[in-house]
Design goal:
The chain has about 300 residues and is α/β, with parallel strands linked by helices. The protein has eight helices and nine strands. The chain has a nine-stranded mixed β-sheet, sandwiched between helices. A hairpin with a 2-residue loop joins strand 8 and strand 9. Helix 3 crosses helix 8. The longest helix has 24 residues. It is globular, with a radius of gyration of 23 Å. The two termini are about 20 Å apart.
């Protein structure tokens, strides 16, 4: 499928801050162009009416005049991240969702070493199976269900018991480990992704306020293939990939909050995963929004336009 969109001047784009504004602006620009002007009834001797604007090309018929250039996404290798030396404000807590593996405990220890107060948000066992043991020093709050009310209560309890939430790191379970994996759009995985969208909604005021005092975090960690879903070595679930869309949106809309999506190869162990996540959380490069750690090392996605593409 090929999508066609109006071309926008840089000064127009500079005024658009959210996805809702972009959509509204595109609808306003495209609507007049998509309304064909009345044409005379064709009859003997009548001239052939011109093709509508969206069907005419600059040099021939049938080519969209303002078609957006298409380009395949490709992995681009990256060096290991630098480290931004900024102390964590005293008393900040960082919420870690439990993916049912030892990674949550390893990440909690690594964050504590950086000055955070880690708190593990334990998902229902019906979704992630057995809950691995956590060290006694690591706080934990269990969700009995995935309702918005239950999540709001849990986040409020964390803030009151462990300190203001300055960070949120979602460890997304591997789909193969979830129940009901008979189809591509796994129901359990969809419920978890919905929970993270709700968490973003509930934490928006807290994290944006915290971002004025230090580096606040919103991060999502998947285990698709370590190559952001475009590797050829394994089949990946499209559901978890939606988390990267959320992170990209929040990156645009939450000023002062460090937002990043990370895709780790399923072969990476718990301790190494924790060190990679903490290293990404301290990366001073704010241009990156998604990073993968796979067979070819650290990488991100970039669009490779054909020669002459805009």
């Amino acid at each position: 499928t090929r999508f066609t969109l109006p071309r926008l001047a840089p000064e127009e784009l500079a005024e658009l801050r959210t996805l809702a504004q972009v959509v509204a602006h595109l609808q306003g620009v495209a609507a007049p162009a998509l309304t064909p002007s009345p044409s005379p009834i064709k009859g003997e001797g009548s001239p052939t009416p011109p093709l509508p604007l969206w069907e005419r090309g600059s040099g021939g018929e049938g080519v969209p005049q303002w078609a957006a250039p298409t380009a395949p996404a490709a992995l681009v290798r990256l060096p290991l991240p630098d480290r931004l030396e900024t102390p964590v404000p005293d008393g900040w807590s960082c919420v870690i969702t439990d993916d049912g593996t030892p990674t949550a405990a390893a990440l909690a220890a690594a964050l504590a070493a950086r000055g955070w107060q880690p708190v593990v948000l334990r998902l229902p066992t019906s979704l992630v199976g057995a809950r691995p043991t956590l060290p006694p020093s690591v706080g934990r709050v269990a969700l009995h269900d995935l309702s918005e009310g239950q999540l709001e209560q849990a986040l409020r309890m964390i803030a009151e018991s462990y300190g203001p939430v300055g960070g949120f790191i979602h460890l997304h379970p591997q789909p193969a480990a979830l129940p009901h994996t008979t189809d591509l759009l796994n129901d359990s995985e969809q419920q978890i992704v919905r929970l993270i969208f709700l968490a973003a909604k509930l934490l928006a005021p807290t994290l944006t306020t915290a971002g004025r005092s230090g580096r606040s975090l919103f991060m999502a960690v998947t285990r698709m293939d370590g190559e952001l879903g475009i590797g050829t070595g394994r089949a990946v679930s499209p559901v978890g990939g939606g988390l990267f869309g959320l992170v990209k949106t929040l990156h645009q809309e939450w000023a002062g909050v460090f937002c990043r999506g990370i895709d780790l190869s399923p072969e990476v162990g718990a301790e190494q995963s924790a060190q990679m996540i903490v290293a990404e959380s301290a990366d001073p490069d704010l241009r990156l929004v998604e990073v993968g750690y796979g067979p070819r090392g650290r990488a991100t996605l970039a669009a490779h336009l054909p020669i002459g593409g805009a």
